[in-house]
UniProtKB/TrEMBL annotation:
Protein name: Deoxyguanosinetriphosphate triphosphohydrolase
Organism: Dyadobacter psychrotolerans
SMART domains reported for this sequence: HDc (SM00471)
GO molecular function, one term: dGTPase activity
Pfam families referenced in this protein's UniProt entry, alphabetically: HD (PF01966), HD_assoc (PF13286)
GO biological process: dGTP catabolic process
Domain HD/PDEase intervals: 59-264
InterPro entries assigned to the protein according to its UniProt record, in alphabetical order: dGTP_triP_hydro_central_sf, dGTP_triphosphohydrolase_C, dGTPase, dGTPase-like, HD/PDEase_dom, HD_domain, PHydrolase_assoc_dom
PANTHER family xref list: DEOXYGUANOSINETRIPHOSPHATE TRIPHOSPHOHYDROLASE (PTHR11373:SF32), DEOXYNUCLEOSIDE TRIPHOSPHATE TRIPHOSPHOHYDROLASE (PTHR11373)
Gene3D superfamilies (UniProt xref): eoxyguanosinetriphosphate triphosphohydrolase domain-like, Hypothetical protein af1432, putative deoxyguanosinetriphosphate triphosphohydrolase like domain
Amino acid sequence: MKWEKLLSAKRWGSEDKYIEDQAEARSEFQRDYDRLIFSSPFRRLQNKTQVFPLPGSVFVHNRLTHSLEVASVGRSLGRIFYNKLKKEEPGIDDRLPLISEIGNIVAAACLAHDLGNPAFGHSGEAAISHYFTHDKGLIYKDKVTGAQWADLTHFEGNANAFRILTHPYAGKGYGSFALTYSTLASIAKYPCEAAAGHDKSKIYTKKYGFFQSEQQGFQRIAMDLGLEKVQDSPLVYKRHPIVYLVEAADDICYNIIDLEDAHRLKILSYNDVESLLLRLCNDPNLPARLADIDDDDAKISLLRAKAINILITTCSELFYREQESILNGDFNYSLIDEIDEPYRSVMKDIEHISIKKIYNYSSVVQIEVAGYKVMGGLLEEFIPAYLNNNSHYTRKLVELIPKQFITKNTDEYSRIQTVLDFISGMTDLYAVELFRKIKGISFPSIS
């Protein structure tokens, strides 16, 4: 793969209108960032769970604040890489006019990386998949193709993000977000279809990155950017190199920030967090600085900032060092898993304590279980209602689905996707509220 092709400002749905105007105040990739910031799906991330239940009096991160922080880290990763390239080859901007935009491409892709996650995160994904593999949802197996069934039984937030960004929803126009090809390719951590998305031995097939409904669109982007195709059936490509930086930004943020949130919620003690982050910070003067600060939250904030800075520097250096292997599609690791020691061991220790004490904490498990029930309950109501729509009750349910999601297609797969578009886009709070109302647990207020 070559940077000359991988970096493109061609826009989805507006390919024939592509004109690069360097005189504009914003670059094409900054436009991508701004379009995402002002979009409704991005705003809805404010009420989607990151790890902990949405806060009461104590602030913890939600999907929106997480995405903003990931974008900030991602921009730095891309900028450091560009600065290293420019130092090695001062005239690189003449050879690669868009290479200076890597930081902006990474930042935009980072904003969008969680856009397709349903309410309640991975629990929501599991609930959707479970519906189609048990009892009530199994009746649709013979009404779709095998490849389409793989989409439904292994619902994937990564693929859903690509759909949100490219699907021509009713009234939204064909181009939808009209993001650049490079930004769209940079969110595809797993550029393959569902039937291939279970091979854990390859970094690009651990999950999958596009539904059958978006496969041709992804192929068009991949061909234009020169992504390396691995096989045709099931379809698999190797990653766009910038994906590694987007992934690293996400890995850095959730590993470090989850510790900070756990401390605020008193799940981890100050000493628990300090002992981990001090090993990352690699600053002999830091203990003395911490001793001058009285507030534990302020101490954690300083440790967090130092740790993230170290990880940004380390990951960007690794990306630069492994650039040839990454461009060849042969680098089979995430950057965070291959950083130098002692940082790699510290990150493994953080992962271990996070699984043991954070992700299995009672309130985290409770919200996952509740979310599983809510999402499953909504699917049980809306999918049969939309596909059959043969009673007064089902007609009323269908009226609750926004018109933008309604499809003119008559095949079962497209009609099921209509309901999944609606339900997967819900916030945690709206999903719970709607579930309670249609089950008669609570009644709507008249405002």
